[in-house]
Specification:
This protein is of the alpha/beta class. Helices cover 38% and strands 24% of the residues.
């Protein structure tokens, strides 16, 4: 199967390293790559010496016939490239957030429907083994009902990125659509749409939202999720959750070993077995990701959906769109909260 990659920066590197690993065991061939920064393009090309190279993604879409294209561009470029690829007859794996406006959400859904092609969104947390374990625990009811859950996703200020795009909220959607959207998406995936929600936020001196604390109400549980880009670029990336069930509390800490512990009412602490289909640590990407495992898992899953003509159930476009829409709503609520604070 012929695969193309558009965007070879931080996220793109994670994708092409996963595709290279996949190519060793499946009928995967990366036939073309696009990246406007020469040093990033050269680095990617060193992994795929036979691939054709392009400066711009739109040129790649226009000139190539592909089974799958991976779109790993800055967030504000996702929708136009995904729509162009669908219109060309390509199946599309697009990074999260799938887009930044409600208009683009609708345009993407329309293009998917017209093309009849498959689209998957890189909501990778759905493929992390610790989060899969949590969802299975919730779905099976093995620890009784979920009473409450607190999630956190913490990062230093993001000062990498093409033309500093993270710092322009029209391009990144702020911390809400870039970072917090992971937890928001997982909460929806596990619990469905919240009955109500409440948002508190802070901003950078530039006026961009840099911290959000969102609370979600469900029938018999409540969830709080915090996402922050700290004022310092030195704060290490860190993700956690604490899920309080009737008969156990699950505690995940991305910086700890073991990363997941189960606390029982009798005082016992259990360390669950977490199988992983691919273990590969790599800091080549130069962003806050070193474990390629979950990326490999989602990319392999999408490849199999296309190869076997199966529906995309893990993170289809419809889900990526719903999470983007909820994040857009929260982003507006965050701005309103900050404005109200100023006028008190």
């Amino acid at each position: 199967m012929k695969i193309g990659i558009i965007g070879c920066g931080g996220m793109g590197t994670t994708h092409y390293l996963s595709l290279r690993a996949l190519a060793e065991q499946e009928g995967v061939e990366v036939t073309c790559i696009a990246e406007c920064r020469k040093e990033f393009l050269d680095k990617a090309a060193s992994y795929f010496p036979n691939a054709r190279t392009y400066e711009y993604g739109m040129d790649l879409i226009k000139n190539e016939e592909l089974d799958i294209v991976h779109i790993c561009l800055p967030s504000y470029m996702h929708a136009e490239h995904a729509i162009a690829a669908l219109e060309k007859g390509m199946n599309v794996f697009v990074e999260k957030p799938v887009c930044l406006t409600e208009e683009d959400c609708q345009a993407l859904l329309d293009a998917e429907k017209r093309s009849g092609k498959k689209v998957m969104v890189g909501q990778v947390v759905r493929s992390f083994k610790e989060y899969k374990f949590l969802k299975e625990a919730y779905d099976s009811g093995r620890y009784g009902k979920l009473k409450s859950m607190v999630m956190q996703r913490i990062s230093g200020d993001v000062r990498w990125g093409f033309e500093n795009w993270f710092q322009d909220e029209k391009k990144s959607g702020s911390v809400v659509l870039d970072l917090h959207v992971h937890d928001l998406d997982f909460i929806r995936y596990m619990l469905g749409e919240p009955k109500s929600m409440d948002v508190k936020a802070t901003e950078f001196p530039s006026g961009m939202v840099n911290q959000i604390v969102a609370s979600y109400e469900y029938d018999d549980t409540f969830v709080t999720a915090e996402g922050i880009w700290d004022i310092s670029p030195s704060l290490k990336f860190h993700a956690t959750y604490r899920a309080c069930f009737e008969k156990a509390t699950l505690v995940f800490d991305s910086g700890a070993t073991p990363s997941l512990e189960i606390y029982k009412p009798d005082g016992e602490v259990e360390i669950p077995e977490l199988p992983s289909e691919y273990e590969e640590e790599s800091d080549v990407a130069g962003i806050n990701i070193s474990n390629l495992g979950p990326y490999f898992t989602e990319i392999k899953y999408f490849f199999e959906c296309v190869r076997d003509d199966k529906p995309v159930e893990l993170a289809p476009l419809s889900e990526g769109v719903k999470s983007a829409e909820l994040a857009i709503k929260e982003w507006k609520m965050a701005k309103e909260y900050i404005e109200k604070k100023k006028h008190h």
